[in-house]
Every structure is written in structure tokens, then in C-alpha cells.
Amino acid sequence: MSFTLEMGLCGRKRSLRSHQVSNSDSHEVTLLNVSREMTGYYKCEITEDYPSYHTVILGGRMQVVVVPEEKPLLILGRPRPSPGDKMIANCTSGAAYPAPNITWTINGSPVGINPAEKKVV
Asked: Which end of the chain is least crowded, N or C, by CB within 10 Å?
């Protein structure tokens, strides 16, 4: 029985460089120095030897994520506004991929945000 591992990205086949694969055998592949560019659809093809040459292909999508290194930052324009005042608050997340979702709540209740007012930087 033999197997091959293939990575397809956006309809293009891409081979993994030998320095990106380590401690791999006929059952397991270990990828080194994974980057966002390695996000894609991975397939494992298993072929039986003579006489049947029966083949099974299994696959799955892998997405490499980048987690923010720092905690989110919350800035309140006025920590103690008076009734009737306008209050501006800003919540910023560190660099991440995919971009994180920020959800606002007041005392545990969700705050409706107009999608046109959301900013993704």
C-alpha cells in the first residue's frame, strides 16, 4: 500500500518543499514552519498494491490562523459621562487572521451596530 499527499490551493496544485516536511511516514505527515500561504485543501491518496490497485482519496481543508499576540484594547472617551451625553468607545484587537469579530454588549445585552459603521483595519 502506498500513499501521496497533495495540497491544492485555489484550484492549483502545489507541492510542499522537502524542508517543510519532517518525521513523516506512510501514515502521518508533519509540516514545519506553517504559514498562511499553506492554507488549502489537503488530500491523502491511498492505493493498494497489485492485483487490485484499489484507490481511496480523502481530503479536508486546513486554514492557518494567526492569533493576536496582545489582549484587546478598550478606550472609553469619557469613563463617567453625564445623562444625555454622547459616549464614544473604541475596541481594538491586535493583528489576526482571519480578522476577529468584535461584539459589543451593555450589562450583558447585545448592542446593535449598523454594519455600515463597522471599521476593519
From this structure: C
- Those residues whose C-beta lies under 8 Å from the C-beta of residue 11, and which sit 6 or more positions away, are none
For residue 9, give the 3-state DSSP assignment.
strand
Neighbours of 34 (CB within 10 A): 11
| pTM for the structure as a whole | 0.54
Taken in order 110, 111, 115, 117, the sign of the CA dihedral is negative
Cβ contact 7:15 at 8 Å: yes
26 vs 34: CA distance, rounded Å: 21
Q: How far apart are CA 114 and CA 85, in angstroms?
A: 20
Does position 6 have pLDDT exceeding 60, yes or no? no
